[in-house]
Amino acid sequence: xxxxxxxxxxxxxxxxxxxxxxxxxxxxxxxxxxxxxxxxxxxxxxxxxxxxxxxxxxxxxxxxxxxxxxxxxxxxxxxxxxxxxxxxxxxxxxxxxxxxxxxxxxxxxxxxxxxxxxxxxxxxxxxxxxxxxxxxxxxxxxxxxxxxxxxxxxxxxxxxxxxxxxxxxxxxxxxxxxxxxxxxxxxxxxxxxxxxxxxxxxxxxxxxxxxxxxxxxxxxxxxxxxxxxxxxxxxxxxxxxxxxxxxxxxxxxxxxxxxxxxxxxxxxxxxxxxxxxxxxxxxxxxxxxxxxxxxxxxxxxxxxxxxxxxxxxxxxxxxxxxxxxxxxxxxxxxxxxxxxxxxxxxxxxxxxxxxxxxxxxxxxxxxxxxxxxxxxxxxxxxxxxxxxxxxxxxxxxxxxxxxxxxxxxxxxxxxxxxxxxxxxxxxxxxxxxxxxxxxxxxxxxxxxxxxxxxxxxxxxxxxxxxxxxxxxxxxxxxxxxxxxxxxxxxxxxxxxxxxxxxxxxxxxxxxxxxxxxxxxxxxxxxxxxxxxxxxxxxxxxxxxxxxxxxxxxxxxxxxxxxxxxxxxxxxxxxxxxxxxxxxxxxxxxxxxxxxxxxxxxxxxxxxxxxxxxxxxxxxxxxxxxxxxxx
Length: 630
Description:
By secondary structure, the protein is mainly alpha-helical. It has helices at residues 6-23, 31-54, 86-109, 116-135, 139-157, 164-195, 200-206, 212-229, 238-241, 247-256, 261-268, 270-273, 277-298, 304-323, 327-357, 375-388, 395-408, 412-441, 458-479, 483-492, 506-528, 543-549, 554-600, 607-629, and strands at 63-73, 76-84.
């Protein structure tokens, strides 16, 4: 009976979104309240279902609700069904819980926007699509939510599309995500062609009887999909520009939910990656590259939102790295995903609070000393800062240290390389996040005279405070008695895996990580506390800084590798079409017209000409008969 409630998780925000979009201006006065109530109601249903799961034996906690038969063509049968298990409930509570807090925050943040109702409609649409993504019981059902999330993201990033740069940012995110979506669609096609099913249960059952080559192909396609949605190398270029959307969008989509969809996809597909070592290794490599890539970019960003976006890219790299380490790493990837949802969403909202008090200024070099004017924002942001850099006992200390330890224990040179990358990334994180704290909240004021910094209203700082509490306690709760690991075991640890050697004891790993974090903090203090902070013109920075500020030339690389050759190929194809294909068609037409013109000349209209032709024809016939009869 309880399983019949699963659909309401999606239906409530979806129905609310439809009302807000169709009601028009009549809903302007109450649209934001309906949108927030819908998200909160969905969270209430999710919390109730979670309590029901806790009351059941471990083997009976997964629930499935069939809605209707979607496709029934020959051997291709797909039901529109929803699966609520130990993995999906984690995402349900994160999406609806953090999503509701962001809705509450947005009531005040968007209060002066004439299109606030439409904004809440898009937020509800996103919540519904993301829930479908994590609740679908097959890759095809997941794909519908996957595309819905892409649409909602496009609408929210380009919400202020009257600004050309914002509209361009939305298109960039949309196009790059379509590249990843192609990977997911190909994975679904390969799975059906080789296994005859697209359901998670069906593919898991068929995987042991499927060739490693096929599973590797599916795994690589799934990795491409994950890289697109989660802004992982080499499809990470869209995330920084996506900060064009309103700040609550950054908190919801680019910190807590959508960008974690790729990690969910890999973790949900554990039965594929565990049986395809090559694809699993590629997941690890992508995660390691991205965690360093994002961290390096974060060191040079002066835009507070873009610095946090680079941090998000890096932290999801940690999650991807953990997910690529197999059964021992899946739970730690999800743990870091959940803790990251608290502290990063809180910091994005904190950035929005700073912008709210600073006339939408985003350049941190024009901040300074804001802790005196925005004490609540300073405290809540600061707690998120301590969590992300991994200071005990804050949440990031537990989740990130688990990933570092797992990477080091991967064995051999692989473990050393991955562990070193994770540790170096931790040092860079401590550096750039300390830089953000110093430039924003400490030192002397550097803002213009027309700025009047002030604390945000309660509807903005209350969600920040709740997320800050999660940044403090969630890591301890997840690791107490290995609670999250045991909770996820039925979904991600059902496969045999060998014992993993322990390169270093956990206490030693934590000691090394904390030492590196302190080094990162110290370097930031020396660079930005002991020296005056200057607003250096972009043209006066070093060549290396320019490269880093240009996101390590990722846009230039995409332009050189894909765009320019693509343009050249398109021009070539157009030329072939116009000169060869169209030319052939036009040539046939011209030949017919020319032949007709030639024949037309024989029709003179003179009787004498026709009589002469008749005479010639008759003579020819007579001559022919004579020749034949001889």
